[in-house]
Amino acid sequence: MLFGPISIKAGFGGANFQDNDAADNFGTDYASNQYDKYTQWAASLSWGTLGQGFYTAATFQTRNFEALGGHDFDLHGDTTADEYDVTGAEFVISYGFANGVTLIGGYNWMKVDYDFVDNPDNIASDAKSSVIPVIAQWQINPSIKIWAEARFDAGTDDEYAEYTNEVYAHNDENVFALGAKYTF
């Protein structure tokens, strides 16, 4: 098939959390009490059907988090930020063969950028992560699927884990996995 389905998607989301009075009444020990405003938008484009012949897709997204007045996000010990952005992009290309084998490769990039309130040590305000995922899977029959996957670091900054509160603590390491799934 030379031409397959094309999908174009876009989305926007946002929230206003609480005012300073609510945060002061409940305290700011919990990270969620520090948030004032959140906005996000994303767009994606894909061509084909995953697992059935040629497929490719790309996604771009950005998120912005703002802190309540007087309640900053802590980072690097004595450094705080009153706002930060998370921006990312993903690209994937795959091919699904008629025998049930699908090969998938991609590239994922993410950047966290803080707006520091104070910066006594002149710390860089952003950190980036780049990884390359590779997956091979085989749908042996409708009930059994096996796969192997790897994620290779492609230039993740050393401080990236700290900038993301350890959520992405291992993006700077190569990771390998094997799996099998049986559906009853």
Label this structure with key terms.
184 residues; mainly beta; 2 helices; elongated
Provide a brief overview of the structure:
With 184 residues, this protein is mainly beta. The protein has 2 helices and 9 strands.
Topology record:
Elements: E1 6-16, H1 20-26, E2 35-49, E3 52-67, E4 73-75, E5 79-96, E6 101-116, E7 126-141, E8 144-153, H2 160-163, E9 175-182
Antiparallel strand pairs: 1-2, 2-3, 3-5, 4-5, 5-6, 6-7, 7-8, 8-9
How would you explain this protein's 3D organization?
The protein has 184 residues and is mainly beta. It has a domain at 41-63 and 83-182: monomeric porin ompg (Porin, Beta Barrel). It is built from 2 helices and 9 strands, in the order E-H-E-E-E-E-E-E-E-H-E. It has helices at 20-26, 160-163, and strands at 6-16, 35-49, 52-67, 73-75, 79-96, 101-116, 126-141, 144-153, 175-182. The mean pLDDT is 79.
Share in β-strands: over 45%
CATH level-1 class of one domain:
Mainly Beta
**Arithmetic mean pLDDT:** 79
Helix percent band: under 10%
Detail the poorly predicted runs: none
* Biggest β-sheet strands, sense, barrel: 9 strands, antiparallel
Treating each run of at least 4 consecutive H or I residues as one helix, how many helices? 2
Q: Using the 3D structure, state the CATH architecture of one domain.
A: Beta Barrel
Structural class estimated from helices and strands: mainly beta
Elements, N to C (H/E): EHEEEEEEEHE
Instruction: Work out the radius of gyration.
Output: 21 Å
At the fourth CATH level, what is the homologous superfamily of one domain?
Answer: monomeric porin ompg
CATH level-3 fold name of one domain: Porin
- Which shape, going by the Cα principal axes? elongated
Query: How far is it from the N-terminal to the C-terminal residue, by CA?
Result: 32 Å
* Total beta strands: 9
